[in-house]
Amino acid sequence: MKIKYDTKSSTTFLFDHDVSDSQGRYVDLRKSPDRVTELPEAKSWPAFGEFLQSINTTKAFRTFGCAVSGMQQANVCADVTWVDVAFDDERLRWGSCGFHANEHFQKALFALNGLPEGGDLVIELLHCRTKQPDKTKRRGTRMYFHGTREQSQAAFGPVLDFLQRQQPDDYAALPDVGYRPPEPPTLRSSVGCALNLLAPFVVLGLIGFGIYWFFVR
């Protein structure tokens, strides 16, 4: 398998009611892992349901969103299987601590890069965040499984083994190494960016004016 990082981010909104026939309501598998059979994704792919259930029984993690390739989600058909994974520890749920923990978690996942399981499967990682039905916010990591069901299923075991070895205290104790969530552009930053773009043209204009003044005029 190959691990890949993407700088994009995604937001998931969870509901306590069925969104559609193929996209059910949010089920807190951390509290009730046996309810995984209620998820349309687990009904469509039982091995994926077992994977979700196992993640939610680890010491450190919970899931809060998923999709199975080929299944209809609202008005869109999912083109790739994915799962959102977050730390269950309240210290790592949100804010800069949650962001730092997920940065380190994603870097640690590269230990799986090059394993024979999954063949040429690519697992793509990106930041994600969610708001649960009770308004709780969480930061997490979305894992896209780019490959066939057989390839993805072969990778579930190594991924789960990795998750089971992680300890939340290790991530909570990590120092702030300078990572920051991307901030929306401000007026000041936008003006500064515009000036930086215009600067070369201003310099060329001044040079042209100087040439005209001294040699042509």
What does this structure look like?
The chain is of the alpha+beta class and 217 residues long. The protein is built from 6 helices and 7 strands, in the order E-H-H-E-E-E-E-H-E-E-H-H-H. The longest helix has 30 residues. It is elongated.
Features:
5-stranded mixed beta sheet; 23% strand; alpha+beta; 7 strands
Topology:
Blueprint: E1 2-13, H1 40-44, H2 46-55, E2 61-67, E3 72-73, E4 76-77, E5 81-87, H3 95-108, E6 122-131, E7 137-146, H4 149-165, H5 168-172, H6 187-216
Parallel strand pairs: 1-6
Antiparallel strand pairs: 2-5, 3-4, 5-7, 6-7
Helix pairs in contact: 2-4
Question: What is the number of E strands?
Answer: 7
Query: How are strands sequenced across the largest beta sheet?
Result: 1-6-7-5-2
Helical segment count: 6
Distance between the termini: 69 Å
Percent helix range: 25-40%
Largest sheet, in brief, is: 5 strands, mixed
The overall average pLDDT, rounded, is: 81
Strand/helix succession: EHHEEEEHEEHHH
Approximate strand percentage = 15-25%
Outline type: elongated
Contiguous uncertain segments of 5+ residues:
13-22, 177-187
Summarize the structure.
This protein has helices at 40-44, 46-55, 95-108, 149-165, 168-172, 187-216; strands at residues 2-13, 61-67, 72-73, 76-77, 81-87, 122-131, 137-146. The chain is an alpha+beta fold.
